[in-house]
Amino acid sequence: MATKTGIDQDALITMFSQASAKQGEALRQAVSETTLRALQGRELTLKNIRGVLKTVTEAASTGAALHGGKPAEMEALLGSAIDGMDAALLQAVEANRRALQQFVDQGADLQKGGIKGALNDLETLEDTFFSSVSKAAQAAGAPVQGPWAQVLESMKLKGTDSGAQAALTVEQLLSQTQTAMRDGRAMSLRAGKALMDSYAALVSGVLIGMSEGLQRGGKDAGEGRAAPSSRKR
Question: Considering the chain, what percentage of its residues have pLDDT values greater than 70?
Fold first, then answer.
């Protein structure tokens, strides 16, 4: 069953319910790809990110509950889920960075107007991640609430990769903005507003382009590896 986020929850539920202890990486990868595809299917706003994370969390919770393993086993399953979502959000951070870089290169002041709002969204991405997953996890059945609490606590202690990258991105972009201001480069207010009006769509397009590039790169690399392996036979 595909939801309005475009996610096939039934497929995820089945995958989690039937997973073995050795399939953690496969689960993480599946969740990452599913989350990323869902994010690509809409404008990349915090509201849409929350919706995607909620849907994935619900599917992982249902699947883990059906799995019927011990709490430690469910923790491992849910840990793979949250790691997969984090990996997808890391790509979203990079898409935002590339989009905001276009503003910086044209002399935009990231601390003013709508552009500041985009930067604030990036800064609060980790909080959005935790709040969205926590809320969905609390609504799940009793068997997975304890394991989810452990997984989330562990993730909060170490922090998310996407959150760390978002913080670094904001710091770097603000530094570049200050340099641009000192150099006298400034984007007109009209141009800045025009770009911001389509910012979410711009980031979504960047995210799609990034993934297409990775897919082409992976295919080329696979073709490159094929010949040597065939010669060894």
Answer: 79
Q: Is the pTM of this model over 0.90?
A: no
Return d(Cα 15, Cα 4) in angstroms, integer: 20
CA Rg value for the chain: 20
By residue count, the chain amounts to 233
What CA–CA distance (Å, rounded) separates 231 from 228? Answer: 5
Distance CA 55, CA 37 (A): 13
- The answer to whether 36 and 91 have CB atoms below 8 angstroms apart is yes
- Ordered DSSP codes for the chain: -B-TTS-BHHHHHHHHHH--GGGHHHHHHHHHHHHHHHHHTS---HHHHHHHHHHHHHHHHHHHHHH---HHHHHHHHHHHHHHHHHHHHHHHHHHHHHHHHHHHTT--TTSHHHHHHHHHHHTHHHHHHHHHHHHHHTS-HHHHHHHHHHHHHHHHH--HHHHHHHHHHHHHHHHHHHHHHTT----HHHHHHHHHTHHHHHHHHHHHHHHHHHHHHHHHHHHHHHHHHHH-
What pLDDT is recorded for position 181? 61
pLDDT at 21: 67
Token readout for 119 is 């930067």
Class of residue 220 by CB neighbours under 10 A (exposed 0-12, middle 13-18, buried 19+): exposed
- pLDDT, position 219: 47
**Which pair of tokens denotes residue 14?**
């089945």
How far apart are the C-alpha atoms of 24 and 32, rounded to whole Å?
Answer: 12
